[in-house]
Amino acid sequence: MIAESKFYNNINVLDSVDKGNFKAEIIEYKSLTGSKNPSLARHLYYIQQAGMTLKQVKVTLNNSGVIVEPGALYFQKGNITCDANIGGVGGLAKKMIKNKLTNESTFNPLYKGSGEIFLEPSFSHFIVVSLDNGSIIVDKGIFYCAESSLEVGVASQKNISAGLFGGEGWFQTKISGTGTCILESPVPMSEILKYNLDNERLQVDGNFALLRSDSVKFSVERSGKGIAGKLTSGEGLLQTFEGTGAVWLAPTQPVYGSIGASGVSSLAAAPYNRNNPA
């Protein structure tokens, strides 16, 4: 018990949801001091100085279940069983199609029973999303786990422009029902802007919308009509969200991509020069 207490003393809970029979927590390690390799310890020091922390998803079940992305299980304790969650021949076919269309795994294991489940530790970011008889469309590959009361499926683009130019392909992951899901985000929650549209329009120059309500229409439009419009505005195609519902944006996501590809100096250039290098 002393060792367990010391472990939890080194843990912060970033976010959580507790329903009694199902509890999900996003935890982070306050420090990583276990390395005996000086070179690795130096890297860990700079990682922590940059504000990066090791995170993990912990799920506590009480006669309930959780759907998990394959390979994400790290360890578990308690009376918990695993179901491949295939759903017969028809279910197998649907899941194989879903895998091809959305880049999500074919089979999402369903863990049922009572106990604790820890998923793989990572320097990624995780966000908790709760649904109340609703549906959301999420970016490809960011589904991580979900309460077993939710259904994880496929949504097709309803607009030709969205399928051709939206950056998400023709199909995305759809999560429906009542319950809690956890998504793997490219940025922390503090860098996510949540819009609740009320019969409004939101236009985005880039591919950094993480999720939207199923009720929100998604399409792609030109920022200006014709060549003259593009030359005047300096922009091209805009992701367009219309209607009533939620849209979550990660405005800083493209910045990290630019730094990773070209270094910090790429951000010093004017936007037009960054988009149109010599």
Molecular structure report:
The chain is α+β, with helices and mostly antiparallel strands. The chain has 2 domains: 1-185, no CATH class; 187-278, no CATH class. 23% of the residues lie in helices and 46% in strands. It contains 7 helices and 13 strands. Strands 1, 2, 3, 4, 5, 6, 7, 8, 9, 10, 11, 12 and 13 form a 13-stranded antiparallel beta sheet that branches. The termini are far apart. The relative contact order is 0.12.
Offer a quick outline of the entry.
The protein has helices at 2-9, 38-49, 88-102, 160-165, 226-233, 253-262, 271-275, and strands at residues 11-18, 22-29, 55-68, 73-83, 110-119, 125-138, 143-147, 151-156, 171-185, 193-204, 209-213, 217-222, 237-249. The protein is α+β, with helices and mostly antiparallel strands.
The largest sheet, given as strand count, sense and whether it forms a barrel, is: 13 strands, antiparallel
Number of helices: 7
How many structurally independent domains? 2
Strand content: over 45%
Computed Rg: 21 Å
Uncertain runs with pLDDT below 50, 5 residues or more?
A: 161-166, 226-234
**Secondary-structure-derived class:** alpha+beta
Counted beta strands:
13
> Overall pLDDT, averaged?
83
Q: Ends: how far apart? A: 63 Å
Report helical residue fraction: 10-25%
Shape: flat
Order of helices and strands: HEEHEEHEEEEHEEEEHEHH
Pfam family, one: AIM24
Protein name: AIM24 family protein
InterPro entries: AIM24, AIM24_sf, Trp_RNA-bd_attenuator-like_dom
